Amino acid sequence: QVHLVESGGGLVQSGGSLRLSCADSGRTFRSYAMGWFRQAPGKEREFVAAINRNGAITYYAESMKGRFSISRDNGKNTVYLQMNSLKPEDTAVYYCAARTATGASSSYADYDYWGQGTQVTVSS
């Protein structure tokens, strides 16, 4: 069973940084590719970043490249999202997700399990 819990969200000024964490309490974390998505009020959920099972391959949405970095620690059952140079338009609820496959995906439909989300607010 997969149980994902995000943490690390909060309020930050434009240009600042945050690191989100997503921990899985199960025993099969290393079996899942992981992704981060976000959803702003009134908008559809959008892809942020993804990482394959062993952490060797990562994908990013174009607007996040160079600012965001996804990583994972399979020994700690945790995936991270380091966010730098934050902008007000990055304000959203950020969700982590797990898929029962080796490869990462940018499509939210490919993910089987979701966390409850953590709010990130970037002030101008």
Structure characterization notes:
With 124 residues, the protein is mostly beta strands. 0% of the residues lie in helices and 48% in strands. It contains no helices and eleven strands. The strands form two sheets. Strands 2, 4, 5, 6, 9, 10 and 11 form a seven-stranded mixed sheet that branches. A four-stranded antiparallel sheet has the order 1-3-8-7, with no helix packed on it. The protein is globular. The model has no long low-confidence stretch (mean pLDDT 95).
Keywords, separated by commas or semicolons:
7-stranded mixed β-sheet; globular; 124 residues; 11 strands; mainly beta; 0% helix; single chain
Secondary-structure blueprint of this entry?
Elements: E1 4-7, E2 10-13, E3 18-24, E4 33-39, E5 46-51, E6 58-60, E7 68-73, E8 78-83, E9 92-99, E10 113-114, E11 118-123
Parallel strand pairs: 2-11
Antiparallel strand pairs: 1-3, 3-8, 4-5, 4-9, 5-6, 7-8, 9-10, 9-11
Structural class: mainly beta
Structure summary, number of beta strands: 11
Poorly predicted runs of 5 or more residues? none
The percentage helix is under 10%
Amino-to-carboxy terminus distance: 40 Å
Question: Helical stretch count?
Answer: 0
Rg value = 13 Å
Q: What is the N-to-C succession of helices and strands? A: EEEEEEEEEEE
Shape: globular
Q: Characterize the main sheet.
A: 7 strands, mixed
- The proportion of strand residues reads over 45%
**Average pLDDT reading:** 95
